[in-house]
Amino acid sequence: xxxxxxxxxxxxxxxxxxxxxxxxxxxxxxxxxxxxxxxxxxxxxxxxxxxxxxxxxxxxxxxxxxxxxxxxxxxxxxxxxxxxxxxxxxxxxxxxxxxxxxxxxxxxxxxxxxxxxxxxxxxxxxxxxxxxxxxxxxxxxxxxxxxxxxxxxxxxxxxxxxxxxxxxxxxxxxxxxxxxxxxxxxxxxxxxxxxxxxxxxxxxxxxxxxxxxxxxxxxxxxxxxxxxxxxxxxxxxxxxxxxxxxxxxxxxxxxxxxxxxxxxxxxxxxxxxxxxxxxxxxxxxxxxxxxxxxxxxxxxxxxxxxxxxxxxxxxxxxxxxxxxxxxxxxxxxxxxxxxxxxxx
Length: 344
Description:
Layout: H1 2-5, E1 21-23, E2 41-43, H2 51-61, H3 65-81, E3 85-87, H4 92-101, H5 106-122, H6 124-127, H7 135-142, E4 146-151, E5 157-162, H8 173-188, H9 191-196, E6 198-203, H10 209-212, H11 217-229, E7 235-241, H12 248-257, H13 260-265, E8 266-269, H14 272-276, H15 294-307, H16 309-314, E9 319-320
Helix pairs in contact: 3-4, 4-5, 7-8, 11-12
């Protein structure tokens, strides 16, 4: 942890020889990104938030034009002088993932970015080649088990996972992990999601023992560590529905590895009706009493993933010297599998 706590000490008092300037770029930031850690010019921030969302950002995150501009500048300088970061996106939307996730606490945002970069290299089998054209990713999408439902009446992105839809005899936890992170990455640059955070609804009804034995202790621990320290997402609520007795041990492990704050945000529901009392029902699929079909939601996700494909694949260009961070992750033999082989 000491390495992370040195984040602010890495901020320079002078700029490197290639001066850092903020300029207005004519092209949209979302079309391709530079991974040069210290470019001569940075594109300026272009706000896509509504007045309501800007107010929400001010009230919940302490964000305003001055805070945003100052922290972006300091974070870019920190990256430019960082001894271990080799390649990194420095566009506003990417850095705001981390600043907003940590409510503009610069030190915490820098720590999260370090862990995010190192995490991607340590767990290559989870994070590399997030390609929506990959055959396994296509199959998992078609299963209609991961459904980004939309923004609820409190401004939060709601995602539904139907565990029973994933064939536990065909896919491993690595398939599911890579698919999950691909879907998350497709939304991380969405300013609405950055501001409002997310709500996860995990429907475990009709899940089998095979679903729960997919995950090893190290997998659960590392996922919770990623969630706490490395993923640029504000988890507002987690609803676990119908967790069967065979999955109770998984629930206990999740709580054991969760932070005190996260524990307060996790709710266990014995049935669907109890959970729906706390959710925006209109967003739910028809089978849950909502107004949209799983096929419609999946088709929207498919289009979003295809539109994000260039960005998703470019993430493999991010680079950090992972050696100083290796001790933060529990690396078992499964995580050492070389990517590029079939994960059967």
